[in-house]
Design a protein that fits this description.
Elements lengths: L1 H9 L2 H4 L5 H34 L6 H5 L5 H34 L6 H14 L3 H5 L1 H30 L6 H4 L14 H11 L3 H7 L12 H24 L3
Helix pairs in contact: 1-8, 5-6, 8-10, 8-12, 10-12
Amino acid sequence: MIGFWATLSLNIPDFSRYARSQRDQIVGQALGLPLTMALYSFIGVAVTSATTIIYGETIWDPVDVLTRFKNPVVLVVALLSLCIATLATNIAANVVSPANDFSHLSPRKISFRLGGLITGIIGVVMMPWKLVADPSGYIFTWLVGYSALLGPIGGIMIADYYVYRKRQLDVNDLYQPHGRYRYTGGFSGVAITALVLSVLPNIPGFLATIKVLPQSSVADFSFPLSLRLVRRLCARLRFVSRLAQGHA
């Protein structure tokens, strides 16, 4: 579940930046995300359990459940609702962030719309239907695998903003090509070092998940473990770097 929400938790600023105040975005997320996720999870469990009783087998795929309906009106309405829900969810959760990223690579040549089209093309080329075809592979291999990378990225953001900078940013420097946030050629050596060091402990667990090494439970906790580890590493490396350079 943590891995499932890991991507949106990292790119939530794409949406929260439009909030009028910090309080608005905190209240909005606190009311909107946990309650709706709990409701949808309950519906998923309830419907899946009902299929066991009604059809004699456990059906987790909503499309498979819909194909069992006989009434054409119900079937059409349900499929249209599923299409709209899928589009709305994917545009918000999976398109906005990469579209912004592609646009930022070359703002003059790549607009947000073109970035969204590039995202869509890459999404099709990746053949995501193969991921969800096997529930165990999707949950225990794909989600666990990228959690090992997203955990450290989230930890770096938390450590840098809350621990090192004490929630203070120079907004003007954020938009300066040679400001303090450019680091070395646009890359932060401290962040990259912390990322690599925090991912390494998760590699054996991931290899065990894909059956390369003997079974291990470490991979199941890759997100919280790497998040905690990189948060400490990044904060300490930042302070060491500042002492070595004599300035932040």
